[in-house]
């Protein structure tokens, strides 16, 4: 097998194509028509599949197969993609044998309802942890990226990786996002925070923060039941590289990726500070076993 390309080379190669994908997604949003619903998942977000999901994944797959034909790749729409069979593998490899993952439209329901806080998220995973993540917000003309041990960065879509500035999330709103199945802790947080319960507070008319609100300062924390590699865990990695605290729901450090199942970390606490992390941890610990 040929030498694995560096994470920076992979990002630099893909960035121009991801920008094209972002322009496509932005153009298509008002015109979007839903394809038949995904068969898996138990909430309305996972039931949303659009033309943009499939088209963007196909674009990234073509670039990867044409540029890094030996790379491992797992995209959210792997089951409906004709390119999946051409990749060497779709699962994590050994140390240094990277897996590229893609969520072509993170926040598909937000996207379909015309909200601006959807993203295209591409990640590079090693056997133990993330090596790099890039998250593009087409409707907001910004993107975030992080490289393992090098910090997180933010720029406009006109900027190269080198032109981006270090991501400094200095002032955050006292708001907490609760993912699906976490609404039981809402009552113990409402005296100190605005609590946004995704299952009950989502509106097709009024935009609420998505998890990417941790990168924009719209959230000071989040509690998520399961951290999928392609979206939640990827955004948590960017936050981590920007200095945030990310732990499991018990407060322990994250397990190595290769020990996880179904391309998911366990539940996550994502917090801007130690005090926010303690508040969220106490709220979880107050639940009956």
Task: Provide keyphrases for this structure.
289 residues, alpha+beta, Fructose-1,6-Bisphosphatase, Chain A, domain 1, D-Maltodextrin-Binding Protein, domain 2, 2 domains, seven-stranded mixed β-sheet, five-stranded mixed β-sheet, 7 helices, 14 strands, 22% strand, globular
Structure summary:
The protein is of the alpha+beta class and 289 residues long.
Per-chain topology:
Layout: H1 7-28, H2 51-67, E1 72-75, E2 99-106, H3 108-112, E3 119-125, E4 130-137, E5 142-147, E6 151-156, E7 165-166, E8 175-178, E9 194-197, H4 198-201, H5 213-216, E10 221-224, E11 227-228, H6 232-241, E12 245-248, E13 264-265, E14 268-271, H7 274-285
Parallel strand pairs: 1-2, 8-9, 8-10
Antiparallel strand pairs: 2-3, 3-4, 4-5, 5-6, 6-7, 10-14, 11-13, 12-14
What does this structure look like?
The protein has 289 residues and is α+β, with helices and mostly antiparallel strands. The protein is built from 7 helices and 14 strands. The strands form 3 sheets. The chain has a 7-stranded mixed beta sheet, with helices on both faces. The protein has a 5-stranded mixed beta sheet with strand order 9-8-10-14-12, with helices on both faces. A two-stranded antiparallel ribbon has the order 11-13. A hairpin with a 3-residue loop joins strand 5 (142-147) and strand 6. It is globular. The model has no long low-confidence stretch (mean pLDDT 90).
Number of domain units = 2
The CATH C-level name of the largest domain is Alpha Beta
State the CATH topology of the largest domain.
Answer: Fructose-1,6-Bisphosphatase, Chain A, domain 1
- In round numbers, the mean pLDDT is 90
* Spatial gap, N to C terminus: 49 Å
- The CATH superfamily of the largest domain appears as Fructose-1,6-Bisphosphatase, subunit A, domain 1
Work out the helix count: 7
Q: What low-confidence regions span 5 or more consecutive residues with pLDDT below 50? A: none
Shape annotation:
globular
How much β-strand is present in the residues?
Answer: 15-25%
